Each structure stands twice: as C-alpha cells, then as structure tokens.
Amino acid sequence: MKTDTHLSVIARFPLGVYIGHRPDGSLDFAPSPARLHSALLNAAAQGTRGEDGQPSAESLHALEWLEQNPPDALFQPESMIAGTTSSRFMYRKVGTLAKSKGGKYQPATEKRRVSDGVSVSSGFGYRWDSVPAEVAETIRGLLEDVSCLGETHSLAVLEVADFTPNLTRDDAAGAFTPGTQEREVAAPGRTQKLISEHNQQFKKKAPHKFSFSARPHSYIPSRESVRRVRYRSNSPRHEAVTPWAEVYFFEVDKEIPAKHYVELCSTMHKALISRNGNDVSPVITGKYLSGTKQEPANRLAIQYLPRNISRILGFDSPVLALFVPRGTSGADLQQIHAAEKIDQLWSRKLGRLRIRFTATTRFADQFWPSPEPGYKRLWKPMIPIIPETRPVRLKDETWGLADSGLLSLAYVWRDELSSTEKGQRRYIELRNQVLSRGASVSYAKTSPVRARDFVHRTHNSVPVQPYTAIFQLGSLADSQTAVMIGQSRHLGGGLLVPFDVPEKELESI
C-alpha cells in the first residue's frame, strides 16, 4: 500500500532570468504556484504523458489534487529586476493579416511590452509536506516535460530536489500581516476551466486554408478558480525599536513629478480621513486632544515612491507607501486598514489617479535591501527637506542647515530622547543628543526649487528653506530602516533613500 510522502520541486532558470507578466501586463517577480499548475497542465496534455493532446486520467487526478492543496512552503531566491528603469514597448508581427486604411491587407502588428525579466540567484522552490505517493509520482513525470515557466522564452528546468524554504504558508495571515507575501494558487475547478478555454481556442480540426479573419491565439487565461494564499517569512525576527513599524503599499497608475509628491500624499491622506468619517484617529490626523501631555513624535506617514525607487523594493510601478507608527493597534490600526478600499484619488493639480492595494506589507526596519559588501550606507533625501524650525541664534557659532538636519532627526526619535530645556536651548540639546549617537549631516545646501511645492503646513514665523544633504544615522537606525525627516515627513517629503559609497572613499565625505 502506497503512503503519503513529501514533495519538493525546484524551478531552475538556466539563463538566470525569470520572465513573466501579471494579467495587467506588469512584471511578475516570482512564478506563483498557480503558474506552476498551468505549466504542469500544459505538460500533461502536450508532453509524453498526453493522450491525443489531452491530459491522462492520472494527470488530471494529480492536477486536481494540487487545486485542493497549495504548497506548504516556498523558496524565494534573491532577485533583482534586469534591464532599464523605464517601460519599453515594441510592435511585432503576430502572424495574421489586417486591413490597412487603404483597404489592402498587410501583416498585422501589435504593441507588446518588452520585459527584461527578473535576475535570480538560484531556483524557486515549492514544497508539499504530505502528498499521496501516486500523485507525487505523476507530478515527477510531468516536471520532465516542462520547458518554460512564464513566457515561452523564460526557459526553465523543473526537478525534484530538497531545499530549505524561506516562506511558510500562514492560513491565519491577512493582507495587513507584516512579514508575509501573497501568492496565487490554483483553486478547485482551475484545471477544467483551462482545458475548456484551450479547446475553444484550438479546435480539434486544424484549419486547412488561409483566412483573412484569422486572429492570434494568444490570450489572457481566465482568472476564475484562482485564489490567494499568504506565506510568512522564516527569517529570524527581532523586535526593532524604529519610528515606524510596518509599511503598506499601493500601486499608482502613473508617474508623478517630484513637485507634486506632497500634493499626492496629502490627497491620499484626505481620502483616508474621508473613508473613516467622524472620530478619525489622531494617529492619522495628527490632531490630539487638548491637554495631551506629550504628543507622539510620529504619526501615519504617506510617501510616494517613483518607479526607479519602487523597483528596488520589487515593484514594477510607482507606489504609495503607508508607514504605520510603532505602537499602533486596535481601532487606530483598523482605521488605517480602511485605505484598502481606496481605489482612486483626485486633486486639481493631479487630476484623477487610480491606485490599488498590493496586499504587500513589510517591516519598516527591513524596508531597504542591505548594502553590498565593502560599501557603507549613507542617506540622501529623495526630494528637498523642509526644516521644522527657524534657525537658532547662537553666540559663538552659526546655526546652519546641517544643524537643522540633525534637529530633524531628533524630532523623529524624540520619544527616545530626553529633554529638560525649553525654547531654543531645547533645540540645541536635542541636536547634541543625536550627535552623541553618531549621526552627522554633510554637504548641506539649499535647493533652487519652488518651496511651496515641498511644504505641507508651517508656521508663518518659520522660513521655508528647502535643502538637501548627506546623512549618517549612527546608532539611530540600521542600514535597512525607513526614515523620513523634516516638516512634511508625514505627507510626501523628507524620505531618506540609500546612498552607498565604497568604505575606502568614506573619509572624503
């Protein structure tokens, strides 16, 4: 009697690149279990186990078992987008004819996106902990007939091999559970749905003569019988003390110029407040009841990441990122989660934009990838920073932009710093405390930009002076932590992005 066994499948890409697209045409960063199921179905029909172009009964049984049983664990290799930072298209002939404006038939062309794919350090892994022996045996045979995973030029070798997973299925996780990733898996009925669609597209009797009405057989497969499952990271997790705890991402349908980042984030902020109606949490609004002894240093921060930055994080479009402050829970967190329902934004300057919650979250202390060996991580603002205060008047020294930058860092970490002074002496005290923790600001200089584009709200007595600089955070934060500083840090301004330099060149900075 055959018993259950475990099954581990590795998908290797001999060219080192995986190429695939999502239904909306955007780049796919990992072949999902649903895509693996489709590849196995194709192998079952057209491979050595096929019967007259259709899957055998054994293959159908194995594929339908996969519909009921998504992988228990996955392996996600290190990866990065290969190629340029902008979308590219080409017009290619598709093997049919189309009538031109002059009434003549000419080879038809279609606009197709050119994708450079995703470079991967190793293969992707899929593991089932308990599989009926006959199903495992059938799947092993089907793997031999899979030649590609993703696009037809995304060559792949699928084989049974053990691996150590770094993602484990978590059926209790939700869209806002940090440290989890979403994957599409085949649901019951998926196999029969794909077979039915294929049979409609490709009739049993092949056409035997030319037809002007012929159309390409390429089509986007049905989205029916596909469901989403979440997998949590197996990486050791330490509880980091950071200003913001977790981040939620929303795709934006078009690029926004830097001068409108604050406008866009303010519009998203207003939409979230409107979605929650009355009694909106001060974690969102920043407005606390009178008499509150000490307001928290940080509240919900909203930042726009253009495509050249979002690609570093594994997105193929611009994104809005919502940063949830440390310690947020309960009703406050539920109000932030209401952002999931927002699908479009509008403002006079921006017009209408469509956004979509990606169901992707991450810890704020693991926001950026680690620097390469031999490099030191410094930071620079993505757009100019706005100081929170007027320059301090000092007797023996001049308060410069670098001092304002240090004070901005102190405001972000204010909850961890102690202060006994008041007024301008307090500014000096806070500045000195972040200096003592190894923070520094260099190459600070004003930016020749329209200041009002980069400020949200400020007091009339505070001069609006946009500037840029290079920051070292010392012991305030590690090399992967998301940090925003300055007057508009909660609404589109002051996001610090990595500026990695070789360690041997660090002394010159």
UniProtKB/TrEMBL annotation:
Domain of life: Bacteria
NCBIfam families per the UniProt record, alphabetical: cas5_6_GSU0054
Name the UniProt record assigns to this protein: Uncharacterized protein
